[in-house]
Amino acid sequence: MIDIFTHIQKTLDQTPHLLRLGRLFSETVLIEVDGEEFYLTFEKGHLVAVVEGPSRKTPWSFALRVDRDALDKFWQPLPEPGFHDIFGFVKIGRGRVDGDILKLVKNLRFFKEVMALPRGMKGA
Amino acid sequence: MTIEAITGRYLTVQIAGAPRRIYFEEAGQGRPVICLHTAGADTRQWRHLMNDAEITSSNRLIAFDMPWHGKSLPPEGFETEEYLLTTEAYIETVLAVIDGLDLGKPVLAGCSMGGRIALQLAALHPDKFSGFIAIEASDFQPAWYDIDWFHRPDAHGGEMGAALVSANISPYAPNAERWNTLWMFMQSGPGVFRGDLSFYTKDDSLIPRLPTIDTSQTPVHIIVGAYDLTCTPEDAKRTADAIPGATLAVMDELGHFPMSEHPEGFRPFFVDALAKMP
């Protein structure tokens, strides 16, 4: 998973429209994959740190909890129905979004496109 | 240079005892087909079909912007009004437009909330129509989101709405049409998407009416996209099963805005639906 988050970090820095969309986004997001925690810290749209958990001390604003198989399907070039969007995970019972959802919704296009950056990447 | 065959005009009708200036577009000749847009959008969703010469050679497609949407202004005094669409107001608006345009008994094609109201009209006013094409239409779904997210002073409701509804667009949709579809949501007026969703996510009055629809008089054909998270194929099937004689088509590679997000993918399903109508 760390490799994929590193890929996201590098690709995001080379994607000007996402940096513009995320310019007001400075938050830590918890991504939990098969129970493993990853804390992604964003600063003005840049992904500045990815820290593996578990941690009870790291504050986060919202969390996406999902299984790895669902994420792999999400990252296919043409995902199956339900795996084509992070809210699809919730709808089909393969994921959960919690925490400060409004913060997510205010930055929804940014966050969705950041999460989709590995789409089509070999090995994702 | 191309000039499209679509023409746009305005019609003023009385709704709830007050005038509404309604923008409508039309193309083609022959059987009238009135086309209803989804929540938070407008007539532009139908432009691909209205530019389809084969379809418009025998069908007169008419689409209109609901009040508050597109080029139809909100009613006078809107500045202090909270926009909340109701089933009753929606029905009154559709009937006023078909009467105002003297359409006789048109086919009604509606998508999403337009599909929902198509089924309400099939139950309550079948004498006014010749048949119903209900797209991404179902009996009822409560919201899986908080509709108040989309109307607040500290964020852009249109941008948030577009980001949310992108969950309902198929990955097979051509990129340009995906973004043209989302642009309409980004452009919708403050509180309009919320006001549409209020009707769509809270009024479940259609459920007991479905078995009363007489498809021997007015056929009902439901079309649903597999990538639609809001009205899923299961929702559409449950709804079709509750209407004696209704037919259902599932589009494997489309989402919630088929005529707009993927016009080529939707075309055969719409042509097939038109063939089922009188």
UniProtKB/TrEMBL annotation, chain A:
Superkingdom to which the source organism belongs: Bacteria
Name under which the protein is recorded: SCP-2 sterol transfer family protein
Organism whose genome encodes this protein: Thalassococcus halodurans
TrEMBL record, chain B:
Gene3D superfamilies, A to Z: alpha/beta hydrolase
Superkingdom: Bacteria
Segments traversing the membrane: none
Residue ranges occupied by any AB hydrolase-1 domain in the UniProt entry: 33-266
InterPro entries: AB_hydrolase_1, AB_hydrolase_fold, AB_hydrolase_sf
Short name of any one Pfam family annotated for the protein: Abhydrolase_6
PANTHER family: MONOACYLGLYCEROL LIPASE (PTHR43798)
Protein name: Pimeloyl-ACP methyl ester carboxylesterase
